[in-house]
Specification:
Layout: H1 2-8, E1 14-20, H2 28-39, E2 43-49, H3 55-64, E3 69-72, E4 86-87, H4 89-94, E5 99-103, E6 106-110, H5 113-123, E7 133-137, H6 141-152, E8 157-162, H7 165-179, E9 183-187, E10 192-193, E11 200-203, E12 219-220, E13 229-232, H8 241-248, E14 253-254, H9 256-272, H10 278-288
Parallel strand pairs: 1-2, 1-3, 4-6, 7-8, 7-11, 8-9, 10-12, 11-13, 13-14
Antiparallel strand pairs: 3-5, 5-6
């Protein structure tokens, strides 16, 4: 009887994680491990540094270890696509993958960044992007994901503001080709004045991110409409100089914690097939960042 009971015990944890370089300061694992505990799941989240030249081997390791999924952060979100079996249609439109889920023996690439941002807009800011005009600062991976999801959610016009013209032009052309969006590029050579017709401003750059938390994007809100929603993808610190300046002028704001939590929530649900404990995840993230 004792031997029979012993054989019934399962000591094997299901594995997920994040691959990046650098990755040591990524707090996603704290949030996901808290969610697994709350859900009673014997899952572990591994934070793994992977150099660019080692990415192919790392994905082979994901397969060999039978991992249930993985997150990708800088600099792997585009490069990883060639090593996967399938790319979800919206991730294909974005041109980047930040989440991989296992379906049988197949690895499927997803992008939860834009979805997380969109859920934050709709749930936390009560903002519906359908029919709205949007200004996005930056042309990197976050800007691609956010702009694509906004277009798919019905935003009618996007203005991309970026310092490097070639990078901005490439992003604008890619998003226009993949979505048919009404999207244009404005060179960021001087202070950008947010136009009064804009309904939403998104800082999709790393300006204001720790340890440069005092930095402020070179913009002016002088002509902005009073109900312009100002949002930031930077989550550390949650109150960036941009959001502080917007709040002082009376604008509604949305911080980067919202996007980080909701992209994690969506990832949890993709991996486990269960509803995510959102409140637990948000609290764990706040504690990790010293905000609780």
């Amino acid at each position: 009887m004792m031997a029979e009971n012993y054989m019934a015990v399962n000591y094997r944890a299901e594995l997920v994680g994040v691959l990046g370089d650098p990755v040591a300061e990524n707090p996603t694992g704290v949030m996901q491990e808290a969610a697994f505990r709350a859900a009673g799941l014997n899952w572990r989240y591994l934070t793994i540094q992977v150099k660019p030249d080692d990415l192919a081997d790392a994905i082979r390791g994901v397969r060999a270890f039978g991992m249930r999924g993985i997150n990708l952060t800088i600099p792997h979100k585009v490069e990883v696509m060639q090593y996967l079996d399938e790319i979800a249609p919206d991730a294909q439109k974005i041109g980047a993958v930040n989440t991989v889920r296992r379906v049988g023996d197949q690895l499927v690439g997803e992008n939860t960044d834009g979805k997380g941002f969109l859920r934050g807009l709709q749930v936390d800011a009560k903002f519906n992007p359908a029919g709205k005009r949007v200004v996005i600062l930056g042309a990197g991976g976050a800007a691609r994901a956010v702009s694509t999801e906004l277009v798919l959610a019905g935003a009618t016009e996007l203005i991309i503001v970026n310092r490097t013209h070639s990078r901005g032009e490439q992003m604008v052309n890619d998003v226009r080709q993949r979505t048919g969006a009404a999207i244009s590029l404005v060179p960021w050579n001087e202070t950008f004045v947010v136009p009064p017709e804009a309904d939403l401003l998104v800082n999709a750059t790393s300006i204001g991110l720790y340890p440069h938390g005092d930095d402020m994007p070179d913009i002016s809100l002088e002509r902005a409409r009073p109900d312009l929603l100002v949002s930031d993808v930077v989550f550390n610190p949650p109150e960036t100089p941009l959001l502080r300046a917007a709040r002082e002028r009376g604008h509604p704001t949305l911080d980067g914690l919202s996007m980080l939590v909701y992209q994690g929530v969506i990832g949890f649900e993709l991996w486990t097939g269960r509803d995510a404990p959102e409140a637990v995840m948000k609290e764990a993230l706040k504690q990790a960042l010293g905000l609780a």
